[in-house]
Amino acid sequence: DIQMTQSPSSLSASVGDRVTITCRASQSIITFLNWYQQKPGKAPKLLIHGPSTLQSGVPSRFSGSVSGTDFTLTISSLQAEDFATYYCLQTHRTPYTFGQGTKLEIK
Amino acid sequence: EVQLVESGGGLVQPGGSLRLSCTAAGFTFSGSWMTWVRQAPGKGLEWVANIKGDGSEKDSVGSVKGRFTISRDNDKNSLYLQMNSLRAEDTAVYYCATLRGSSDTRFFECWGQGTLVTVSS
Fold it and tell me: Which of A57, A100, B17, B97 is most buried by its number of CB atoms within 10 A?
């Protein structure tokens, strides 16, 4: 199985900060990497797929990039509504696997 | 607007069975791959199973193989997850989602609100 190592597991930041979250794949997943945001009690929401295509309706402060097997989600200027848990997901091979999640909290 | 509504969750004893349903609207269901994802209380997300639009291809995570069966009824715009031999570790919120993709991308796009399955005596 492909392991997705996501870091950090938690992060404290302030409104207006720039934050980055990283996922490292245990083997090549080419471009089959997606990012999700989840708020408490809600279903995950697709932010980015493929790994830099912004889903329709998602603010442009969210962006994704890749370098080899390292994938990065960047939020350029945090807004209050961005405090949530973020997950990466690889869909290159089954079993599809998620990262462990990053809980983004208000400092 | 895409709508996915899960149902069928509840409390079941270890070793018991449950069938989850996901009713879809707002898109061409028969042409869409579908997936189930679960989330144990306070834990992360885990992919459970996929099924192709015509039902001809299916796949699932190893921990549920031989116990869970994904299926669909395109006439009813419905997706199912038959869960047998349930264990405490199957306790989770179960989400259905649409699975979209192309040659270089594949993603779970639209999600239902989830249904809670609790396995306990």
Answer: B97
Structure tokens at A50: 């493929």
Residue A79 Cα, gap to closest chain B Cα (Å): 23
Amino acid at A103: K
Query: Which residues in chain B have Cβ-Cβ distances shorter than 8 Å to A5?
Result: none
- Residue B95 has which token pair? 């989400």
Binary contact (B107, A98; C-beta < 8 A): no
Q: Tokens representing A77?
A: 């200027």
Q: Are B86 and B9 spatial neighbours (Cβ–Cβ below 8 Å)?
A: no
In our burial notation (b when 16+ CB lie closer than 10 A, e otherwise), range A24-51 reads: bbeeebebbbbbbbbeeeebbbbbbbbb
- State the Cα–Cα distance between residues A58 and B107, nearest whole angstrom: 15
- Look at residue A93 and tell me whether its pLDDT is greater than 90: yes
Q: Give mean pLDDT, residues A23-46.
A: 97
What is the rounded distance in angstroms from the CA atom of residue A37 to the CA atom of residue A85?
6
pLDDT > 90? residue B67: yes
In residues, how long is chain A?
107
For the record, the structure tokens of B30 come out as: 């028969």
**Nearest to residue B94, comparing CAs of B50, B53, B48?**
B48
